[in-house]
């Protein structure tokens, strides 16, 4: 392991000690709480005021990319009938928490085909965990 990988691993372990990053895959529905910083200028006090709040962004994870600290994931949701995608770095300080709402069963690593689908065609089947610890392949038999 070279020096850069070692430093990256130390940083990842320091971040994961503070906040928990769940195991998720493409096809899973995620709820990502993002810190939004609003800066306004106060005329009376002649200074900038910063307000910080959490905003939830819930949608389907359509892909993950990168390795280590540079890893990020793309979440797609429908907002007022229009598809909206957002890319989040996993270890960003602006990402407060990630919660897996439901697990989806897909056979692709990148779900870009969902961009062309709406309604029932864009549905993803739910992934069932097997009782013996393995994952359900989805095939009867």
Summarize the model shown.
With about 140 residues, the chain is mostly beta strands.
Describe this structure in words.
This protein is mainly beta and 141 residues long. It has a domain at 25-114: SH3 type barrels (Roll). The protein is 11% helix and 40% strand. The protein is built from one helix and five strands. It is globular, with a radius of gyration of 19 Å.
Walk me through the topology:
Layout: H1 3-18, E1 29-42, E2 47-65, E3 72-79, E4 82-89, E5 95-102
Antiparallel strand pairs: 1-2, 1-5, 2-3, 3-4
- The number of distinct β-strands equals 5
Low-confidence stretches: none
Give the biggest sheet: 5 strands, antiparallel
What would the principal axes of the Cα set say about the shape? globular
Largest sheet, order of strands side by side?
4-3-2-1-5
Percent range of helical residues: 10-25%
Share of residues in strands = 35-45%
Task: Please give the alpha-carbon distance between the first and last residues.
Answer: 44 Å
> Overall mean pLDDT score?
89
Order of helices and strands: HEEEEE
* CATH topology call of the domain at 25-114: SH3 type barrels
Q: Return the CATH architecture of the domain at 25-114.
A: Roll
Based on secondary structure, the structural category is mainly beta
CATH class of the domain at 25-114: Mainly Beta
Number of helices: 1
Rg from C-alpha positions? Answer: 19 Å
């Amino acid at each position: 392991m070279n020096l850069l990988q070692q430093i990256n691993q130390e940083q990842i372990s320091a971040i994961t000690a503070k906040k928990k990053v769940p195991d998720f895959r493409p096809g899973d529905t995620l709820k990502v709480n993002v810190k939004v910083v609003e800066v306004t200028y106060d005329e009376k006090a002649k200074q900038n005021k910063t307000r910080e709040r959490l905003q939830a962004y819930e949608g389907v994870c359509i892909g993950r990319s990168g390795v280590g600290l540079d890893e990020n994931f793309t979440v797609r949701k429908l907002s007022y009938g229009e598809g909206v995608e957002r890319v989040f770095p996993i270890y960003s300080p602006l990402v407060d928490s990630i919660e897996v709402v439901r697990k989806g069963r897909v056979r692709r690593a990148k779900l870009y085909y969902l961009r062309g689908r709406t309604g029932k065609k864009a549905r993803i089947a739910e992934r069932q965990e097997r009782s013996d610890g393995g994952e359900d392949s989805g095939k009867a038999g």
